[in-house]
Structure formats: structure tokens, C-alpha cells
Amino acid sequence: MALQLAVEPRHTRGKRNNLRLRRAGKIPAILYGHGLECVSLSVETDTLAAAIHHGSRLVSLTGAVDESAFIRDLQWDTWGTNIIHVDFTRISEHEIVEIRLPIELRGESPGVREGGVVLQLVHEVEIACPASAIPEKLAVNINHLKLNDSVSLGDLELPQGAKLLASDLEMVAVECVVPQEQLEEEAAEAVPGEPEIIGEKEKEEDGAKE
Amino acid sequence: MALMPKRVKHRKSQRGRIKGNASRGNRVVFGDYGLQSMQGGWISAQTIEAGRIAAQQYLRSEGRLYIRVFPHKPITSIPLETRMGKGKGEPEYWAAVVRPGTVLYEIGGISEEAARLCFTRLAHKMPVKVRFLRRRPI
User: Fold this and answer.
1) Buried b (16+ CB within 10 A) or exposed e, A67-96
2) How confident is the model over A45-68, as pLDDT tens digits?
3) Residue of B nearest to A186 (CA)
4) Nearest Cα residue to A21 out of A41, A1, A49, A51
5) Which of A87, A163, A185, B122 is disulfide-compatible with A72, CB 3.0–4.6 A?
């Protein structure tokens, strides 16, 4: 069941008004989609933040509008702590939506006991699934991940009716590898001296010809 | 060896000003946790390297460290006891220009407590105030 979010109509626009709104504990929002009119709204900061941290993407808006909506986009402040704006799109239950989901590792890899390190190389994947069955996250069980084993995007278990939108299904999402010392590698990469100046060689060659 | 560009267009650059907060490079992308700068400033290649070594010594090949800034800017200086004038000084070192909010380092593959401890050690090397950052939920 979708989480309920109480929204209020927003008649004011602009930077200053939105700043005042945020100070009052609300977040400016907008609702659009399905070829209908855009509606400017405001939503309580605490309830929205709770929904976001819970992982809910599908919400049912109550108050100014009574519709189910999908949290399409969030704008965060520079520090990544406060939400400053929300985009809601109108959605019907059987509509297919494209959504980026976080990947969560579950369990303990036996490879770690053998001295390996589990590295998560892909943190989010884009899937298309019905709006009624949007999962909070994609869980990857690493209980069988041995040393030098990997889980590719194609191996991910998707919810029913969902389709992975990644172009490369062979891409490694999680791997258990022997840890490598990065110190020596990176030291070898760095080149001492001054960097090459683009265009200087050509100038010198031109000068020599003349 | 400290980081520096392989090829550049110009040997020297003007100082410039750091205006506003970071609007990109301000979220955790590669790892699970990040170290975010709270102030603007220049971070020299040597400092970035010192931070990397401090973190790497703690990590001991566990997890993975990502450096999110690169020293693109050549910083010049005039030698001591030199009279004013006679042109701009010679490049001394390379620095990364950092705006408030920029993520400097990221760590993945370790627990949050371990990442916090690692970043605490690393933070001592930084010339700017920093804070611990988690990945955004959406």
C-alpha cells in the first residue's frame, strides 16, 4: 500500500517564497503527468523525509489533490542533508515506470573468511516495473559468493514483471577479490617532472623549420 | 608520488576566486561513505597524497578508497629574498580547487564505524573543515 502524504496547494512562487516555505517546515513540490495541468504543492518536510528514508517511491497524495503519485525527482541542498524540492508524477497502478533502485548486499560472503574483500561496483540499477510493485531496493544475496567470484547485472533477482534496463548485462555488480596494495600501483602511475604543454612541440618544430 | 596532470594547455594560471558552493561532485557516487569539504580552498597534490596514505594505512588493503579531486591548478611562487616585479613566479606545486560541499574521498567495502575512523585519520591531514557523508537514499 502506498504511503499517504498530505499536501497543500502552493500559490506563491519564486526563490524567496520557497525559502520562507522551507523555514516553515515545508518543501515546495510539483505534480505533473498524464497530460494534465501541473499543480504547485507543498509537503511537510518530516513526513516526506521519513518516506524517502523508508525507500517509498509510490505515494498517495491527500489534501489539495487526491491522486497516487510517483516521486520522480528530488533536489537536495549542497550538503546532501535537506531536500529542497520534490517532483511528483501522476501514476496509475498498472503503469510501467522506469526507476533507479539501490542494490543492497545481504548475508556474509565465504570469500571474506578466505581473505577476500567484497567490493560493490554498482550501487544503483535502472529497472522498468509496474507501479504497483516497486520494490524499495534490490537485495543481492552474497552467502554463496566465494573468493574470485562475482555477481553480474544479469544475475540480479528482479521482482515479478520487472525488466532490467542496463545495456550490458555482463557488467560486474559485486565481486569478492583478493585485496591488492594500491600504494605501489599508484606510485608507479605518477610521472615526475613537469607536464607536457599542449602545442609547444608544434611551435618548436615550426621554429626549427623557419 | 603526488598527482599532477600529464598534459596542460598553459604552464601557469591565474589565482581565481572560489565563489558559491559545489553543485556537482557533492554526493557519494562510487563508494558507500564520503568525506565532504565544509570550506572552500586549494588542496595541494601533496596533501591529497598524504590523505590517501593515511587512509590506506588504516584500510590495510580492506575496502576501497576513491579520490574524488584532482590537482589541475598550477600554483606559482616567487623565491625568498627576491625583489618584486620581473614577472610571475615559477610553478611550485599543483592544487585542486575545492568548493564547500565537494566530496574529497570515498570509501567502499567497509563498515560505517571503520569508515568513520578512517576518515578521522584522514581529516587531520586536510587544510579544510570536513565532515562524514553517507550515500543519498534516492
Assistant:
1) bbbbbbebeeebbbeebeebbbbbbeeeee
2) 999 998 888 888 888 999 989 988
3) B1
4) A41
5) A87
Single pTM value for the model: 0.86
| DSSP E strand stretches across chain A | 3-9, 26-32, 39-44, 58-63, 67-76, 83-90, 96-106, 117-120, 124-130, 138-141, 150-152, 163-164, 172-177, 196-197
User: Could you give the percent of chain A with pLDDT greater than 70?
Assistant: 93
Q: Chain A closest CA to B24's CA: distance in Å?
A: 8
Cα A14 versus chain centre, distance: 27
Would you call B36 and A55 a contact, using CB atoms and an 8 Å cutoff? no
Cell of B98: 575545492
- Sheet of strand B33-37: strand arrangement: B64-67, B103-108, B33-37, B130-134
Across the interface, whether the CB atoms of B11 and A181 are under 8 A apart is answered no
How far apart, in whole angstroms, are the C-alpha atoms of residue A83 and residue B121?
30
What values do phi and psi take at B76, rounded to 5?
-100, 160
Question: Which residues have CB under 8 Å from B113's CB, separation 6+?
Answer: none
Strand order in the sheet with A117-120: A117-120, A172-177, A150-152
- Please report the ipTM that was assigned to this predicted complex: 0.82
Say what the pLDDT of residue A192 is: 64
> Stretch B112-119: mean pLDDT, rounded?
95
pLDDT digits (tens, 9 = 90+) for A80-113: 999 999 999 999 878 888 888 888 889 888 888 8
Nearest neighbour of B109 by CB, restricted to A53, A79, A120? A120
Spell out which residues of chain A touch residue B135, defining contact as CB-CB under 8 Å.
102, 123
Quick check: A202 pLDDT over 90? Answer: no
CA distance A147 to A116: 6
3-state secondary structure B13-45: CCCCCCCCCCCCCCCCCCCCEEEEECCCEEEEH
Query: Is B13's pLDDT higher than 60?
Result: yes
| Per-residue model confidence (pLDDT) at position A94 | 81
